[in-house]
Design goal:
It is globular and about 80 Å long. The longest helix has 41 residues, at 61-101. The chain is mainly alpha-helical. It has a domain at 570-655: Tetratricopeptide repeat domain (Serine Threonine Protein Phosphatase 5, Tetratricopeptide repeat). Helix 4 (104-117) packs antiparallel against helix 15 (319-338), helix 4 (104-117) packs parallel to helix 17 and helix 5 packs parallel to helix 15. It has 32 helices and 4 strands.
Amino acid sequence: MIIAAIIALTALVYFQQNDFTSIDLGRHIKNGQIVWSQPDVLFKNLYSYSEPDFPFVNHHWLAGVLFWLLYLIGGFKILSGLNILIGIITILIIFKLSVKKSNFALAGVLILPVIILLSERVDIRPEMFSNLFVVLVFYLLEEFRSTKSPKNLVWLLPIFILWVNTHIYFFIGLFMVGLAVLEQIVVQNKNFFKTEQAKKLLYFTLGSAAVCLINPNFVYGLAYPFSLMGRYGNFSENYEIVENKSPFYLENLMLNNNILIFKVLLALLAVSFIIFFIKKISITAGQPLKARLIAVPDYFCLFLAVFFSAFALLYIRNLPIFGLIALPIMAGNFYGSAGMINERIKKYKKAIWSAIFILYLAIFAFLIYDNGGAKKFLNKNLGLGVSENSLASIEFYRDNSLSGPIFNNFDIGSALDFWLYPGERVFVDNRPDVFSREFFKEIYIPAQNDPAKWKEYSEKYNFNLIYFSHTDGTPWGREFLAARLKDENWPLVYFDDYALIMVKNNEQNQALIEKYKISEEKFALRVDELLSQARENEKTQLAALCLFYGRSDLAENIYMEMLNRRPADAKVLASLGYLYAGKPGATNILKSIDYLQKATANGYGLPAIYNQLGLDFWNLADYTEAKNMWRQALKIDKNNDHAKYYLNQANGLAK
């Protein structure tokens, strides 16, 4: 029963539809389609006309081949099925290892938050293979460490051959096997090269590193991961990539319950080591201190725990892989510390298993209920494949034989790679490592937030069409949309729940403009049409587009309709608060305060909310309460620049 519950819960977590306009799946499929006929896709930025010769190491090409073959068979839905299957296999392997290191009941309870944490990364992407390969390598190494038999280590070789060609995280596996070798060197000391098992582990480790050279970029492909994160770091100075930000940084910018789950698991992991350490110290009492310190911890698992914890603390994208590694480690620590408790609870085994099964059912039901409302945990629409509405824009493009050069945003780039290449190339796609730092800093971002630069680059690249995902959350993207939607030189001819298309007002496009130009009246009618089929997250996206377009009345109606059904939805309450804050008059400011305070009361107490409350109170001349709000923002995030600025300004005026 518990195994079935684990499978069902894992399947539910992965049973979420992707927004095709904001993920990199399209590019991966296209890679698999053209890699044999156009091998340049392995080495340079083939899809872009802005920097087509920028060097690139395609470290995931083999995943693209598999994605393309499966797409031919069953489209996006079969790819979603693969994602679910890999997720289930991964979780079952790590659960089996956890049971080996503890017992069924303990592993069955501890795996629950880990499964939910997987929801942080459920998009169809090559990363699924890294999750699988990490747990396979961990399982093989733990088997070797417990049995001293190296016979199954031979499986490391095919794993690394596949891994180096499917995802960049193969270097994590090399770290793990290298750590196992280091442990044997410490344990065996002078006898290391006299011990057959230890020598075979070393040989398979060297072999694993050697087979990683079997990739299209050879030595450079093997070394590439160690330089990529540094390049991401430089890029992040100019462009915010959420997946490469620390969870502790992001928790002050967004509501993400996976960060709370991560904190709980991190605390449990730390506590498990402390309890285990105390238990072992008591067992080895009477021995010399040096011997006790060597015997006490499992240093291999300790260093793994430190590595993966640091990895997750650096980048939120690593929360799931942290959970997978932490599970068997903390299960083993807690079990090894429990002593006689483990024996005493055996007679209650059936009752414990029944309670655990009921817990699974309750969590399963809650996740489905939550997904139909606030989406605090599973924040995408349930279903296989990708959202049908996110595929709609390309039909308009093709039906009307549109053509570039295209100016597009970062997010939608990979979808355009899939839809348009080789007929059209994109301006940019969502790979920060295949464009120069100067491109983002001096061209891409200024083109969106500097009108003079937009005019300059529009003429330089001769843009004929803007293809943009209006879900773009960057400041420059939002500023660009608001400006272009008011620009008569770029009339809006199409929009849906995810994307919009504008064309240049020139002779070439006159027939299209006359037929499809969206006036203010047509905009409202189109919004109503889309709302009739939109899901909750899509309604929120349409409301945001209405605000860009200057129709706050339409956005207000959407939010109010959503609030009537879910009065405690903190995100909707906050959205209404911001909406009214942008309207003139004391009445609207009071409404803003009311909705923002309700949002904080329902768990949406972000620094940005308190900053806006401070501005609202300031505009009502309640200066004391305004400063209290900004102090509250600093209490949550002591480095919040906006709150510091507002307080400094307020204190300066007081003087």
